[in-house]
Design a protein that fits this description.
15% strand; Aminoglycoside 3'-phosphotransferase, Chain: A, domain 2; 303 residues; Phosphorylase Kinase, domain 1; 46% helix; single chain; alpha+beta; 10 helices; 2 domains
Length: 303
């Protein structure tokens, strides 16, 4: 008689099956698309689910409260309760939550529906406006990141004309963040690029709220629009108008000048984070140039 050893499932996957009463676990697949948390697909007798490891209790509490506040709105996936009624569980020193799996494509084959995206983002910000969440720091704070970059680099880096251009942009963006009036701030997603959109049969959902914090809502718009549109494309003004009109149906306060500023901030943050992660090299200098040029293209379109 042949005896087959059990599949090597992780301890936390087996705990999830027990905590959520999912029946038998058939498969566990590591996913690498998330930026702020590691995620796994669990195939169980009750269906497929996403198991996510969280950064800590603040994230666990915030994500659960967000999911509860937006439940039924079709904005983000639900976060399931354990059989004990909690929105997460602990395994060792780590915390996890569980969401229904949404089968998706990376991007719509016929292009994005910008009226739908505008409505989705507007409803998100309207839904987050009244929440009070545990504060968590900005992991990519520009001033802190840029200080690390400068300390780690060589004299050649400081003499590079593109790095001089970036340094000026950093100083401008830091000044902007220090003088902003937070009166219109709300909780924002914090990383709302297309990589955190899931397109399923029931519409578009926003995932991974690991960077949620209080901030200027235009930063979310900056991330979404720059990751899905090219400011130089002749169709972009039409797409942008559809997006803004739909957004304004749910959340007032849109300002094209502020969006241009937040796009510049978003791109400069991205450039600094890249240099902090991979260092000063030819490929990173080229990427910095693309980001700065992109910000200028959007400024010309919006102002």
């Amino acid at each position: 008689m042949n005896v087959h050893s059990p599949a090597p499932f992780s301890q936390e996957a087996q705990m999830a099956v027990d905590r959520y009463e999912l029946g038998r676990l058939f498969a566990e697949v590591n996913l690498t698309s998330g930026r702020t948390s590691d995620a796994r697909l669990l195939d169980t007798a009750q269906g497929k689910y996403i198991l996510r490891r969280l950064s800590g209790r603040n994230q666990a509490q915030s994500e659960y409260r967000i999911a509860q506040a937006l439940q039924g709105e079709g904005i983000c996936p639900d976060i399931l309760q354990t059989r004990g009624g909690q929105g997460w569980f602990e395994s060792g020193k780590s915390l996890y939550n569980l969401q229904p799996f949404i089968a998706s494509t990376d991007e719509p084959s016929r292009g994005w529906d910008y009226a739908r995206l505008g409505s989705l983002t507007g409803r998100l910000h309207a839904g987050l406006r009244e929440l009070t969440l545990a504060e968590q720091p900005d992991r990519f704070d520009l001033q802190v990141t840029w200080r690390r970059v400068k300390e780690a680099q060589s004299q050649a880096f400081l003499a590079d004309t593109m790095m001089e251009r970036l340094h000026e942009a950093v100083e401008e963006c830091v000044c902007l963040t220090q003088t902003e009036d937070p009166v219109d701030w709300t909780y924002i997603h914090g990383d709302l690029g297309k990589w955190n959109l899931v397109v399923g049969q029931e519409g578009i959902h926003i995932i991974d709220f690991g960077e949620v914090r209080r901030g200027n809502p235009h930063l979310d718009l900056a991330a979404l629009l720059t990751s899905t549109l090219d400011a130089r494309d002749k169709q972009t003004p039409q797409h942008l108008l559809a997006y803004v009109e739909a957004y304004a149906l749910h959340r007032d306060g849109f300002c094209s000048r502020t969006l241009a500023q937040q796009i510049r901030l978003w791109n400069v943050r991205g450039a600094a984070a890249l240099l902090d992660h991979v260092g000063y090299k030819e490929s990173s200098v080229e990427y910095v140039k693309r980001l700065l040029d992109q910000g200028e293209s959007w400024a010309q379109l919006l102002t």
